[in-house]
Design goal:
heterodimer; A: five-stranded mixed sheet; 6 helices; about 15% strand; globular; B: five-stranded mixed sheet; 18 helices
């Protein structure tokens, strides 16, 4: 059993402490917006915020995440209002298949909270998620759209 | 009652579809579908023909038979229907009919297969007719209600107007009456110059859920009481499962069952996938690897190299004059050998399917590029008849050709069969996905070009050796043993025709089929053929002492559409003016999937092995552009996929198995490595070409030719990481 605080709610989950946070989120908390892509922290599809920092949840154990503030893609909007990254994603029609985009959006949201007006170099350094469809151009444009707002 | 809803089913699509389906399901083309006078959607709203449902609130539901996997066809197909329907685009929504429903209605929605860049081009005719048919019926219903001649009525934006009186009604109000009418036997489609919605870069219809985490992919399917399965198939293709020691994992948390899957695989079923996977890792498994365990990349390369020798048998795919004789007597000749490796599709979402089997029913939920093929796999694996099975399609986390195969569907059904009444979701680990791809075929190519004394190219011999996809996946499509698709991009004619005129030409294929299973990998045979031909074109230009663009142009006089896209990229990248200091250019063109494409790259190289791609320009002539915003994204995405394969891809074989296991050993480009792609669309009309795949063909040769311009070094094999070349 473990207590995890996900999207502002503390949940008591029947999960072993060494289970990757990704699977606790998907299978025990039932939030499937966070995706499995590689399981080795390479692709970023499972990116969530842990205490506001973008982390690849496949590489974080439940015991490491316990007691921390976890935000998933489902918790990014506040109330009925989408996060500005989600809004920009819709405005720029960023996703293709969309499978990597939860992680991409979480990575970008974390970047913007740290650097509200990132340069291309900042984007290149911070956004390392894999997108096999190749949405990078739209991702970059959407980030600049937010930064210029 | 005879209702011909989509009167002209695409014959070719039907043949391909039925071939994948197998014998039991072949259904005649011209059989009408019967059924009640009014067919209703699940919510009770009436169908106005099979493609359109109109709800009382004027919402229009457009049926989409092809699969959406990111390429945007869902939106494009809806645009095609809506254009003719004259409906309010803001009230359009879509739904997938199931393959089971389609079969029950005599394939009223045609081919479900979503590959070969066919989604739009092979269905545009009958889906537009579906929209036009519904429009005619809706207007007729309004005219009947008003008791006025239909010729006095017109429709626009879901509103029908009686022109003389100005009376109006809406589609939603007349839908019930329209549904009772006999559909017109033939409808006239709009002249392309009158299109209002086709050609517009309208927003995709499926974006919002992809930004909130709400979109359900196969891996996200949840059913009441569902269990989860992890699987390992024999890592040596063709090998078998010998034994496993179930006792060793007895008592591991959550484990419900260990299941032998066919002759080759074992799966652990547990409460959660994480438990299933953890137990599977701990399960001792003994494989009977068989003779294929002796195969390596080296042994495959050696076998393929033998096929390059002229004394080995080969199929001739394109020929004119006498290339061998012309080469023998030429003033000068140039020869080079190239190779292209296996590639894994590496969709972001690994293969998966959820199956529920009971004694008299089997249902599957999955992402698939071919709903009907998945359906056929369910029938075969379950042993149940068509009216007891169905497939529910969900969003694909990438396809790229991989999800046209149904191996994972079959596995899911075989596992679920062992647990009747319990839904089971099978999800492959990334490692399983890397080990059991349907890989881009492996080939080598020896090219010989010959010049006369004036540096005119007089002969070209293009000799391919390697794997045939059709041999493995559609043997019925071979022509006297020859794989016609092997010549994509260098074919005599058709949708992937060679773009150069050479007086003496011989294009041939020595087929060699290693045990590694090949598949349709985005771009398919265009990928290696475009690299071989377009890089060798540069070698020939260099040998002739001519500019690569000018050298090509001289050979393209009889190929105006090929030439037009090449000229378009040359102009856009500024080929006629010198590149900035330290920047080098490369150019390439090819035809595939009925479309003409060209690409040009500007790169810089540091230390001889670090490439920065500064600029990419790409041009395409697909005949018609349905949604330019989506076409632009497909073009840009093709470069990401193609350049990832060039720089980082390549699957190697050791002891009969694929060596790469995850994205650490099979990397993919990131945002910092990818420049903006400037696309130039030059649709010339009069034909319908595909968009998702052709551009990938020019991605690698444009960069490789630029690399030569920068370094004087020819790269003749992929991936670049094997040659210690990487992104700067």
């Amino acid at each position: 059993m473990a207590n995890l605080t996900i999207n502002g709610k503390t949940l008591t989950l029947d999960v072993e402490p060494d289970t990757p946070l990704l699977w606790a989120i998907r299978e025990n908390a039932g939030l499937t917006g966070t995706k499995y892509g590689c399981g080795i922290a390479q692709c970023g599809a499972c990116t969530v915020h842990v205490d506001g920092v973008a982390m690849r949840s496949c590489g974080v154990s439940v015991s490491e995440a316990a007691g921390k503030r976890i935000t998933t893609i489902e918790g990014l909007a506040s109330g009925g209002t989408l996060h500005k990254v989600q809004e920009a994603w819709i405005a720029q029609d960023v996703p293709q298949c969309g499978y990597c985009q939860s992680g991409m959006i979480m990575a970008v949201a974390a970047l913007l909270s740290e650097k509200p007006k990132p340069t291309d170099a900042d984007i290149d350094e911070a956004i390392t998620n894999i997108c096999r469809c190749g949405t990078f151009q739209q991702v970059r444009e959407a980030i600049h759209l937010i930064a210029s707002a | 009652m005879n209702k011909h809803v989509s009167p002209k089913m695409n014959r070719r699509a039907f043949v391909i579809g039925s071939a994948t389906l197998g014998a039991g399901l072949a259904i005649g083309l011209d059989l009408p579908f019967g059924g009640p006078a009014v067919v209703r959607a699940a919510d009770g709203s009436p169908e106005i023909g099979a493609w359109v449902v109109v709800r009382p609130d004027d919402t229009v539901v457009i049926r989409i038979a092809r699969s959406e996997m990111g390429q945007g066809s869902l939106t494009g197909l809806a645009q095609l229907v809506a254009e003719e329907l004259e409906c309010d685009w803001t009230k359009v929504t879509t739904e997938y009919p199931t393959p089971g429903q389609s079969v029950a209605r005599k394939r009223v929605w045609g081919d479900f297969s979503t590959g070969g860049s066919r989604g739009i081009r092979s269905s545009q005719d009958y889906v537009r007719k579906g929209g036009a048919t519904a429009r005619v019926m809706l207007i007729q219903a309004a005219a009947n209600g008003w008791k006025v001649p239909v010729s006095e009525c017109k429709a626009d934006n879901s509103v029908i107007t009686h022109t003389p009186t100005g009376k109006t009604t809406t589609y939603g109000k007349v839908a019930e009456a329209a549904a009772k009418l006999t559909p017109p036997s033939d409808v006239k489609l709009k002249d392309p110059k009158d299109w209002k919605l086709i050609g517009k870069g309208v927003k995709r219809l499926d974006t919002v859920d992809k930004t909130t985490g709400a979109m359900i992919y196969g891996a996200d399917v949840k059913l009441p009481g569902m269990l989860n399965a992890a699987i390992k198939d024999c890592p040596v293709f063709g090998g078998k499962l010998k034994s496993f020691d179930e006792a060793k994992i007895a008592g591991m948390k959550g484990v419900k069952k260990v299941v032998k899957v066919g002759d080759t695989a074992v799966a652990v079923v547990a409460d959660t996938w994480w438990h299933a996977k953890t137990a599977l890792e701990a399960l001792p498994i003994v494989w009977d690897e068989g003779d294929n365990a002796k195969v390596s990349s080296e042994s495959i390369a050696k076998w393929l190299a033998e096929g390059l020798n002229n004394d080995q048998p080969a199929y001739v795919g394109n020929k004119n004059g006498d290339a061998k004789a012309a080469i023998a007597s030429a003033a000068k000749k140039v020869e080079a050998v190239y190779s292209y490796p296996y590639q894994n599709h590496a969709t972001m979402e690994p293969m998966n399917a959820t199956a529920l089997y009971t004694a008299d029913k089997c249902e599957v939920w999955c992402g698939t590029q071919n709903g009907e093929a998945a359906f056929a796999a369910v029938l075969e694996a379950s042993g149940l008849p068509a009216d007891k099975c169905d497939v529910h399609k969900v969003m694909l986390g990438g396809g790229f050709g991989r999800r046209g195969q149904t191996d994972y569907v079959r596995q899911a059904v075989l596992i679920a069969k062992e647990m009747p009444g319990t839904p089971v979701k099978l999800l492959w680990s990334r490692e399983e996905d890397m080990a059991h791809g349907r890989y881009h075929p492996i080939t080598q190519c020896k090219m010989t070009g010959a010049f006369d004394a004036n540096n005119n190219l007089v002969a070209l011999h293009y000799r391919l050796s390697g794997q045939s996809i059709l041999f493995s996946l559609r043997p019925e499509a071979l022509q006297n043993g020859m794989d016609p698709a092997a010549f994509q991009g260098v074919a005599q004619s058709g949708e992937a025709a060679f773009g150069y005129s050479v007086p003496n030409l011989l294009v041939e294929h020595a087929m060699r089929n290693p045990h590694v299973p090949p598949g349709f990998w985005r771009g398919v045979n265009v990928n290696h053929n475009a690299i071989y031909m377009e890089c060798f074109m540069d070698e020939l230009a260099q040998a002739a002492g001519q500019d690569p663009l000018e050298f090509r142009r001289k050979l393209m006089g009889n190929h105006p559409k090929h030439l037009a896209v090449l000229n378009a990229v040359a102009e856009k990248i500024g080929w006629s003016t010198p590149a900035p200091q330290g920047i080098y250019r490369g150019i390439a063109q090819v035809m595939g999937y009925g479309s003409y494409v060209a690409g040009a790259a500007e790169i810089s190289v540091t230390d001889g092995n670090k490439i920065k791609v500064h600029r990419i320009v790409a041009s395409t002539d697909p005949g018609y552009v349905v949604n330019p915003a989506q076409v632009e994204r497909q073009i840009a995405g093709s470069f990401v996929y193609g350049l990832s394969a060039l720089f980082y891809g390549g699957c190697t074989v050791k002891d009969g198995k694929i060596e790469q296991t995850n994205f650490d050993t099979y990397n993919s480009m990131r945002i910092n490595e990818m420049p903006k792609v400037e696309s130039v669309m030059v649709p010339s009309g009069g034909f319908w070409g595909g968009v998702g795949e052709p551009t990938i063909g020019v991605a690698a040769p444009a960069v490789l030719n630029a690399y030569f311009a920068a370094t004087g070094k020819r790269i003749r094999s992929v991936p670049l990481r094997d040659q210690n070349i990487t992104f700067a």
